[in-house]
């Protein structure tokens, strides 16, 4: 007899995702546990408002002791920088998951990226192999170094190394393969060192077979998403590195670790095979019984909740794209736009910039979605979220620009 699928509405799916992302009204967990549930926190050099990893954490924790994050990164080394769905902070305890990608990049038979690197090295052999040996030797001799220090060293020798193209690419090559790691961040510069000297004694350095990697990564991805299709699982956490995903999902389902569900809207199920983790069944049951606490928050453009743009549009009816690389005259919303999460809806966007010379947060434009509400509770929620982020930014004043007429009261916040 076929088992009846658990049924969710889109609202249930949204609320489950928001809860698993710790963006609901419950008390969030401690910092490391929060990152553990997220799986990764994206890094990005742009500081138009603030670094994205801080925005992601502030959205969930509010102000927190940033020294704790630094301790987790550089003293405890419970976190390290590596590829997830993009360059991110990931957990050292998850090293075997990430090692699979590192090992894959050593094999040009199974990796397109490895083949591209091999071809690049072959084209530039007179430059690349001596430089590669030089970088390795410098790290062995000197310990961790900044990228510019390699370039300064290279400039002593007659070669093309010092045109700025080669050293960063060599370091990215060695980083992706797991030979070097970021050992520190003076300002926003990366301090590069040998990976073997980075790992704490307790690091699980073993190599897993592909199915084991996917079984762990898929569960982490699925739990972070709440409910998801195989495509969404694959696009989250360790993006596009899920070998044998179909077989692994079937096995996890057979073992009762995950279950198939359906999302029904207006009597019609959403397309695709949807899954949830069995460990989240009690949370979903509580949500469906009405036990859910809403909250309002401003999200980083790179926030884990919305990093899959197609999923965001499917579940939230919210079309979002980053316009950083769009010419100013062609931007629809702005250079660095923060979506507004209110309860289980994405109700608008904030186009802003933080001026650190005057400690002024300039909110150029606020945009409301067509179906956004203008009631007192909504305006208060948005105003509180703005004030909370202003506090995290250490802004002493907020300069309001254009506001939707229905939210004009925000200017009094």
Give me the secondary-structure topology.
Elements: E1 6-8, H1 10-20, H2 31-38, E2 40-42, H3 52-61, H4 66-75, E3 79-83, E4 87-91, H5 95-104, H6 112-123, H7 125-142, E5 145-146, H8 147-154, H9 166-176, E6 180-184, E7 191-194, H10 210-225, E8 227-228, H11 230-235, H12 245-254, E9 258-265, E10 268-269, E11 274-277, H13 281-288, E12 296-298, H14 309-316, E13 337-342, E14 345-355, E15 360-368, H15 376-392, E16 397-402
Parallel strand pairs: 1-9, 15-16
Antiparallel strand pairs: 2-4, 3-4, 5-7, 6-7, 8-11, 9-10, 9-11, 12-13, 13-14, 14-15
Number of DSSP strand runs: 16
Mean pLDDT: 94
pLDDT under 50 segments (min length 5)? none
Largest sheet descriptor? 5 strands, mixed
Structural class: alpha+beta
From the alpha carbons, calculate the radius of gyration and give it in angstroms.
23 Å
The share of residues in extended strands comes to 15-25%
Q: What is the rounded distance between the termini?
A: 59 Å
Helix fraction, binned, reads 25-40%
Q: Which of globular, elongated, flat, extended, rod-shaped describes the shape?
A: globular
How many helices? The count is 15
């Amino acid at each position: 007899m076929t088992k009846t699928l658990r049924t969710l509405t889109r609202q249930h799916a949204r609320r489950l995702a928001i809860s698993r992302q710790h963006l609901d009204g419950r008390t969030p967990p401690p910092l490391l546990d929060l990152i553990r549930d997220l799986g990764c926190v994206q890094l990005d050099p742009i500081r138009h408002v603030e670094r994205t990893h801080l925005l992601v954490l502030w959205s969930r924790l509010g102000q927190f002791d940033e020294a704790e994050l630094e301790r987790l990164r550089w003293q405890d080394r419970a976190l390290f920088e590596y590829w997830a769905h993009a360059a991110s902070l990931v957990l050292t305890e998850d090293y075997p998951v990430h090692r699979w990608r590192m090992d894959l990049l050593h094999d040009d038979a199974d990796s397109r990226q490895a083949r591209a690197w091999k071809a690049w090295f072959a084209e530039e052999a007179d430059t690349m192999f001596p430089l590669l040996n030089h970088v390795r030797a410098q790290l062995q001799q000197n310990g961790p170094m900044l990228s510019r220090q390699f370039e300064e060293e290279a400039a002593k020798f007659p070669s093309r190394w010092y045109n700025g193209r080669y050293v960063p690419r060599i370091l990215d090559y060695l980083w992706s393969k797991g030979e070097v790691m970021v050992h520190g961040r003076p300002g926003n510069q990366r301090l590069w060192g040998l990976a073997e000297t980075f790992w704490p004694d307790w690091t699980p350095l073993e190599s897993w077979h592909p199915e084991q990697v996917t079984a762990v990564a898929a569960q982490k991805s699925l739990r972070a998403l709440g409910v998801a299709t195989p495509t969404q699982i694959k696009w989250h956490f360790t993006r596009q590195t899920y070998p044998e995903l179909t077989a692994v999902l079937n096995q996890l389902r057979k073992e009762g670790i995950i279950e198939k569900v359906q999302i029904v809207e207006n009597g019609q199920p959403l397309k695709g095979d949807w899954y949830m983790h069995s460990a989240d069944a009690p949370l979903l049951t509580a949500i469906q019984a009405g036990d859910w606490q809403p909250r309002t928050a401003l999200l980083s453009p790179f926030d884990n909740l919305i990093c899959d743009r197609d999923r965001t549009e499917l579940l939230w009816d919210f079309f979002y794209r980053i316009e950083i690389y769009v010419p100013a005259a062609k931007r629809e919303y702005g250079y660095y736009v923060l979506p507004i999460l209110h309860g289980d809806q994405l109700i608008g966007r904030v186009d802003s910039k933080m001026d650190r010379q005057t400690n002024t947060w300039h909110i150029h434009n606020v945009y409301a979605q067509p179906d956004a509400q203008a009631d007192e509770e909504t305006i208060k929620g948005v105003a509180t979220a703005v004030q909370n982020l202003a506090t995290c930014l250490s802004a002493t004043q907020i300069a309001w620009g254009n506001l939707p007429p229905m939210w004009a009261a925000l200017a009094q916040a």
